[in-house]
Structure formats: structure tokens, C-alpha cells
Amino acid sequence: MAALAELKARSAAYLVGLLPAVKLAAEKLIERCYAEGVEMRLTAGYRSAAEQQRLYEQGRTKPGPIVTNAKPGQSNHNYGLAIDFVLVKSGYNMSADDDYDGISDWAEVVAQAKLLGFSWGGDWTSFKDYPHFEMMFGLSLSQLQAGMRPTWQQQQAVISRIQRLEESDEMSKVEELLQKDQEKSAIISALEQRIIALERRVNISQNQTPPDAYHAALQAAKTAGAMSTSNDKDLSGLKTIQILYNMGLFDPEFTRFIHSLKQAGE
Questions:
Q1: pTM of the model
Q2: Who has greater pLDDT, 185 or 150?
Q3: What is the rounded distance in angstroms from the CA atom of residue 75 to the CA atom of residue 261?
């Protein structure tokens, strides 16, 4: 993916002249889409009357396809209320899914824009403008042409909404991290319990009375004189006797012979 700073830099020129609330929403749109794995950038923002006139002439009196039906003063771009965008990887391919999440990248951008308070040109009934987003603040085009503009209170309401959305996202991230932390703690706790249980089993095996097989081997060893009462609790000795006993190699006569050699050496 391209760096977020690069996407912002390529969009910076189109943020100039937008109303503060629209500018903030446009910046957040780039950031939120990037966080979802979708790279998009702006291709239009505020347009002067002269620029709008040049676009209107394209496909009419100048070469190129028709890109707008709006004359100067008839576009919401002329009032700093609208933006256009393009996908960095797939251009205007509305079915592309370059982040492979099963949702078209275009649809993800539209969803994020609507969350931020934009309306989408793709929802228009007549001339659909799929790369277009705008915020009208309840004003009509005729009201804008008459000189009315969004109030500070209207813009502040949008800004507050964006802030609440960001805070909600941050809280969701915190809750997600806490959930993962709880899951990790549960796993660690389960492992600790298993360790404690294993330690108890080891302690019990070291201190408990030897099982029946030990009793039989121990009694034979004592009878042969190989073990005395004082060392019959020796764990290593018991394990040695048990191994010999289990393998069928424990022979009291052989043990008696070894014990007699030991006595002779003393």
C-alpha cells in the first residue's frame, strides 16, 4: 500500500477552499478508507467559476467527453461543499476488491463517506455522479446561488458528529484489545492451572507410599539384604528396583550375591 501521507499529499490541493467541516470530513474519509485497506484520493474539491466553465465546455465546445452538466454557480463544488475521488489502484472500477475482503473498494468508500455525513452522487435519480460526495447542510442550490451559506452551528454539528464517530471507533478498538487481553489471560490461567496440577502430581508421586509393584520389589530386596529400613524411602533406589522388576531382571538370589560381595569388601 502507498503511505497514508502520500495519499494525503496527493489530495491536499483539492482540500483548499472547502468549508472547514467538509475539509475535515474529506481528510477523515481518506484516513478511514486507508484503515480499511482501501487507497483512495481526491480528484476535485472547491472549483472557481472559471474552472467550472472550462469543465462545462469540455465535450461541447472543446475536445473530450462531457463530464458535467453544471455551469458556473450550478455545481456544489463552486461553494466548497463537494469532493470527487478515485481509487488509487483501480481508478473508476467500481467492482474492484483490491483489499480482498469480499466487498468492492468503491462500496467501502461510499459507506465511509456516508458515515461522515456526505451524500453520494450515485444515489441521484437523474444524472448519477458516482465519484461525487457533497454536504448541503439542508440548503438547496437556489439558496446557495442566492448567497446563503451553512451556519457555524451547522458546521459544528457535523464536526461534533465526526468526533463522536472517531471516539466510538477508538472505544471499539480499546474493547477489542481488552477482549483479546482477556482471552490471553484465560489461556495463561488455564496453563498455570495445568502446571499447578502437574506439580501436585509430581509432589504426590515423590511422597506417596510406593505402589504394589514397588512393595513386591522392595520386600524381595529387603529379604535379600540389599536394602535396609533406613534407605527404603530413597526415590532413586526405588526407581532402579522398579525398572529391574518390570523388566523381569530382579533376582533376589543375584541381589543376595551382590550383597555378600559388598559385606566381604567391608
A1: 0.65
A2: 150
A3: 113
